[in-house]
């Protein structure tokens, strides 16, 4: 894959998804075409069709073959953009779902636990997304800068007892990479239980006591769906089987297709 | 590199380096040729000559070009074997250097801290060795099965408070991968301090208290050299600037070339 040897290439900064409306009709049409290609590429990725001809992708996107090259140099470039977009959307969803937390540890744990579960619900997308391997550490968009921001917030508020945020981030990113590997190796392994155990261990790593790390890693989770196949918008239904005393309800959760 | 898409391929089990003497003179000569090729390949790897022609490698090994193909199918196969051999030798050295420890946490921390430092002293060898990325988790020789063994020993003796050794191993392997990435990204970063901070964090992850994790990660280290360039054998000199009350002196440390 395009990303196998380089991290996502979204522009510098990239802390938030861009929300600027294109200035005029022609620009808007161009943005729609690009988005249609990206959505189609995401569908091909989750279906494992990484070698599909460009013509097939443009047909699926309902876009002319000729206009493909106005947007992307190659199929690999499109797929890289599709993964960037998926990770950035995922990051935005995690931000939304975590908006109710005041505790950096709870926020971090929820994002980590929801991400881990995607290795089962969207294995191919996640596998391709993580194709960059350890080079992901350099990513300037998607999940990595968000994890860095959350770790730094935890250090600033003395919730996390680590000194060097980059060392903590390296452990977190490496853990997610190998968690994905473990879950893909062992098809019968429970992604939820495995991810929650990893989250508790990572919270201990960040300086929390074992009991608290355990408790935070067992809190109910909101619903997250990175549904790139259809046009469904998913809701923020929550598992209410356990009590959650310390946070407000997030008011939104959405599938990746919500903005279409 | 050959290992980029697959884990080391050493035979099953592989918990210990094989030490069987070949049965006769012809077998012994064959083993010597193979080892000469592997040593030469290791030198080419640490010097960054990953695309050297096979003829150059055989000349450096003082072996005929024709006999190369009695041992290896391709340069990639030779390089994969060279990396396997280096990791297995490294694992053997770490075993030797850790032989004096009764505490699984101290043993684990020493191996982790010595490995991290190799990202500076042998950056190319380590980079190629870690080229498999998260797939390393499946490795049946080298450092990964040793780390698994050490984690399991810590769990068995209740020194480590983790339940699932595979989850802990995934975090450890991922951490080493991204630690290597961090050290290769930031050339001015102190490998010792960075690795020690990571070791303390990983010990907390495994269930140790923060103070003890910190203390264990600052103990003096024996000397380890994975010197594959020359034929030097390195000694087990120790940094004696700090007291080490809880362990016997290891009686051996050796360079990778010791067995030649």
Instruction: Give the oligomeric state of the chains in this entry, treating copies of one chain as homo and distinct chains as hetero.
Output: homodimer
- N-to-C CA distance of chain A: 25 Å
User: How many beta strands in the DSSP annotation of chain A?
Assistant: 0
Strand content of chain A: under 5%
User: Architecture of the domain at 87-216 in chain A in CATH?
Assistant: Orthogonal Bundle
Instruction: Spell out the helices and strands of chain A N to C.
Output: HHHHHHHHHH
Largest sheet of chain A: none
Uncertain stretches of 5 or more adjacent residues of chain A: 1-17, 231-260
Mean pLDDT over the residues of chain A: 83
Helix/strand class of chain A: mainly alpha
Indicate the CATH topology of the domain at 87-216 in chain A: Tetracycline Repressor, domain 2
- What is the CATH class of the domain at 87-216 in chain A? Mainly Alpha
Percentage of residues assigned to helices of chain A: 40-55%
Distinct helical segment count of chain A:
10
Biggest chain pair contact, residues each?
A: A-B, 37 and 37 residues
Output the radius of gyration of chain A.
19 Å
Principal-axis shape of chain A equals elongated
**CATH H level, superfamily name of the domain at 87-216 in chain A:** Tetracycline Repressor, domain 2
Describe this structure in words.
The structure is a homodimer of 260-residue chains. With 260 residues, chain A is an all-alpha fold. Chain A has a domain at 87-216: Tetracycline Repressor, domain 2, CATH 1.10.357.10. Helix content of chain A is 55%, strand content 0%. Chain A is built from 10 helices and no strands. Chain A has helices at 25-46, 54-61, 65-71, 75-97, 104-121, 123-129, 143-156, 165-185, 191-205, 210-216. In chain A, helix 5 (104-121) packs antiparallel against helix 7 and helix 9 (191-205) packs antiparallel against helix 10.
């Amino acid at each position: 894959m395009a990303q196998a040897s380089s991290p996502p290439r979204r522009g510098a900064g990239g802390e938030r998804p861009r929300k600027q409306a294109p200035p005029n009709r022609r620009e808007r049409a161009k943005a729609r075409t690009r988005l249609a290609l990206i959505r189609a590429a995401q569908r091909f990725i989750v279906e494992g069709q990484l070698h599909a001809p460009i013509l097939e992708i443009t047909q699926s996107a309902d876009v002319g073959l000729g206009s493909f090259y106005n947007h992307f140099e190659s199929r690999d470039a499109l797929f890289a953009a599709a993964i960037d977009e998926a990770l950035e959307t995922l990051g935005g969803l995690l931000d939304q779902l975590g908006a109710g937390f005041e505790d950096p540890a709870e926020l971090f744990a929820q994002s980590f636990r929801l991400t881990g579960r995607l290795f089962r619900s969207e294995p191919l997308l996640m596998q391709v997304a993580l194709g960059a391997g350890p080079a992901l550490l350099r990513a300037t968009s998607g999940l990595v800068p968000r994890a860095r921001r959350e770790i730094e917030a935890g250090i600033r508020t003395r919730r996390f007892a680590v000194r060097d945020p980059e060392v903590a981030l390296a452990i977190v990113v490496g853990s997610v990479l190998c968690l994905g590997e473990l879950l893909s190796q062992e098809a019968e392994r429970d992604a939820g239980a495995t991810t929650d155990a990893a989250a508790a261990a990572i919270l201990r790593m960040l300086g929390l006591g074992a009991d608290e790390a355990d408790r935070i890693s067992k809190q109910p989770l909101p619903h997250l769906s990175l549904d790139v196949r259809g046009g469904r918008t998913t809701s923020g239904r929550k598992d209410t089987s356990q009590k959650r005393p310390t946070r407000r309800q997030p008011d939104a959760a959405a599938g990746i297709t919500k903005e279409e």
